[in-house]
TrEMBL record:
Keyword annotations: DNA-binding, Transcription, Transcription regulation
Entry-linked SUPFAM superfamilies: lambda repressor-like DNA-binding domains (SSF47413), Periplasmic binding protein-like I (SSF53822)
PROSITE patterns, per the entry: HTH_LACI_2 (PS50932)
InterPro entries in the cross-refs: HTH_LacI, LacI/GalR-like_sensor, Lambda_DNA-bd_dom_sf, Peripla_BP_I
Molecular-function GO terms, alphabetical: DNA-binding transcription factor activity; transcription cis-regulatory region binding
Domain HTH lacI-type: 6-60
Protein name per Swiss-Prot or TrEMBL: Transcriptional regulator, LacI family
Native species: Hymenobacter gelipurpurascens
Amino acid sequence: MKKPQTSLRDLAQHLNLSTSTVSRALADHRDISEATKARVRQAAQELHYRPNLLASALRKGHSQTLGVIVPHIKGYFFPAVMNGIEKVATREGFNVLLCQSNEDIRREQRNIEALLAAQVEGILMSVSATTHEDLQHLEQVRHQGIPLVFFDRVPDLPQSMAVILDDFQGAFQAVRHLIEQGCKHIAHLAGPQHLNTSRNRLLGYKAALEAHGLPFEEEWIYSLPALTHEAGRVGMQHLLAQMPPLDGVFAAYAIPSVGALEVLREKGIRVPQDIALACFSNEPFTTMTQPQLTVVDQRAEQMGETAVRLFLQLLKRGPAYSPPHLILKPELIIRDSSLHQSQLMREPR
C-alpha cells in the first residue's frame, strides 16, 4: 500500500514550528536562522518530504509545465520530435507532460481535458488521424487563452499556429528523383487526405509528374486505409493489378513501404531494377530493409525544438501574436531502393 506523502503541515507539526516558518526555511529565506534551516532540512530528509512544486508554481501564477499530445510514440518520428521538445523545454525551465491519442479523437479530447486540469502553460500537439470534423476541444484551449501550437499534423482551424515540414517539396523531390532514374509510370501509396501531411504529399507527387511532362492517372493512386504494413501490402498488390507497366512507387509513409517491398520481392520483381521505390520518412528500419529505402527526412528533432521556441514567443508576446506557419525544409536521402543498377555500381560503398 502506498504510504501517504508527508505534507508541509506534517513537517511543521513534527518540528513544532509554523508552516510559514518551515516554508521560508526550505526556501532559504534570510529572516530564518541557519540553525533553524538546518533543523528543517534534516527533518525533511528523515520524513521523506517532497515539496509540491506544482502548487508552489501555481501560487506564483505559473505552472512551468508544457503539455504535449502526439498520435503515438511508435517508430522514430514522434519520439524524435519529443526529444527536441524536451531539450529546449528543459533548458527553459519547463517540465513536460506527454499524452498520446492513439489516433483516436475521443482519447485526444480526454488528453486536452487532463492537460487543462493540470493547468499547463501551453499545449503542443499533432492531431490524430481521426481529428478532422469536431474541433471543439481545440477551440476550448484557445478560448481559455492557453497557447496552442501544432506540429506536423495541423487541423483545419483558422489562425492556427504550427511548425510543419514542406511536405509538398519533399514529395516533389522524391518523385523528381524517381523520374531522373528513368521512371515513367510512377504510382503513389497515399495517406488519409484530411491530414495536411498526406494531402500535401499527394499534391507534390502530382506537381512533379506535371513538371516533367508525365501523365497523371487516378488509378495510379492507392489510398491507404491505415498507415500499416498490411495496408502497404494490399496497396502494392492493387497497383500491380491495375496499372500498365509500373516502374516507380512513391509512398507517403514508411511502414506501408515495407509491406509494398515485401510484395515486390515475393513476386520476383526486382527493386530498383524493375520498380524503384521512395517514401516518407527516415525511420531507422529504412536502413535495415533489402535494399535500403530512399526516404524524405522530416527534420523531427528540429521540428520539436522549433515548436517550443514558437510557444515561448507566444508566451512572451501574448495572444495578439499570430505568426505564419513555420515551414522546415525536407531532405531527400537517396539509397539503393531507387538507384538504377548502373548507378548503384558507381556509388561509393
